[in-house]
Design goal:
Blueprint: E1 3-9, H1 23-37, E2 46-50, H2 56-67, E3 75-81, E4 84-88, E5 103-107, E6 120-121, H3 122-129, E7 137-143, E8 164-165, E9 195-198, E10 207-211, E11 214-217, H4 218-230, H5 236-249, E12 257-259
Parallel strand pairs: 1-2, 1-3, 3-7, 7-9
Antiparallel strand pairs: 4-5, 5-6, 8-10, 9-12, 10-11
Helix pairs in contact: 1-4, 4-5
């Protein structure tokens, strides 16, 4: 059995307004969890991309490495911590739209400049992950915003520990992109052959927070806390319910989600 993991964390973007503080800590913590706390993933089979290395091209190339040579019985993990946003769906044939709300969820690689060419869209991920053979245990973690508006709450420079949010600030180009006001929008009915653990609903923000004297994504912090207790005994969907309760109890206004065919499976094989 092969176990491979790709962990992507972006704290520093070219525009200083988009700087984050907890993303690299997220993936350092995840690496420790999967290779030391539960030594399931060999360190030689864990790759990390941070900051300048985490361009769209860099992420796609390493996703190809993640999928290379895998077969039924293997397990793979993709964890992304960084900015997320939404863009109006690309135009496709006829009156069929990719998303019910007319919007694609995206992650924002280091070189994301607001354009379609530098975004990594949900449908691009669907195309990449469609290559995963049946029987592979695939977990995808996204600690990023999927916000409907592309503004973010201002960071108060006087408070160095203030919570910020992982949605991208900047100008979004509209080349070859249709309006998001789509009256005849239809849902994408494809199902992920794996489990997606997302930090929040598509209209919510994901907190970049200061917890226990350290910066982390609030979602990743409470996810690893609960995985440490229950990864080998409790299905992912139930673990996310526990994470949801802890986020709410600590006044984080984000509701984590699970989806995919493996949401009722354990984190490890």
């Amino acid at each position: 059995m092969k176990s491979k993991a790709l962990l992507v964390g972006i704290n520093q973007y070219p525009d200083p307004r988009n700087s984050l503080r907890g993303c690299i800590n997220d993936i350092v913590d995840m690496e420790h969890f999967i290779s030391v706390t539960h030594p399931i993933y060999p360190t030689a089979q864990i790759k990390k991309l941070t900051d300048k290395a985490a361009t769209k091209k860099g992420i796609v190339e390493q996703l190809e490495w993640l999928l290379e040579g895998i077969e039924a019985g293997d397990q793979i993990l993709f964890h992304y911590s960084g900015h997320g946003a939404q863009l109006p769906c690309l135009k496709i044939a006829g009156d069929v739209w990719e998303e019910k709300d007319g919007l694609d969820e995206i992650i924002c690689p280091y070189d994301f400049d607001g354009s379609n060419a530098t975004a990594l869209r949900d449908n691009e991920f669907a195309q990449i992950f469609s290559k995963i053979p049946k029987g592979v245990h695939f977990i995808w973690i996204s600690d990023s915003c999927h916000a409907e508006d592309l503004s973010r709450d201002p960071f108060e420079p006087n408070d160095e520990f203030a919570t910020t949010y992982r949605n991208f600030t900047g100008n979004f180009l509209r080349e070859n992109i249709v309006s998001s006001n789509v009256a005849e929008a239809k849902p994408n009915e494809k199902h992920l052959n794996g489990a997606l653990l997302s930090a929040c609903a598509s209209h919510e923000l994901s907190a970049d927070a200061y917890i226990n004297k350290r910066f982390n994504g609030a979602f990743t912090h409470y996810l690893i806390k609960n995985l440490t207790k229950y990864a080998t005994t409790m299905p992912l969907k139930q673990i996310i319910q526990l994470v949801d309760r802890e986020l709410a109890a600590n006044n984080y206004d984000q509701r984590p989600k699970t989806e995919g065919l493996l949401e009722n499976k354990l984190f490890f094989i």
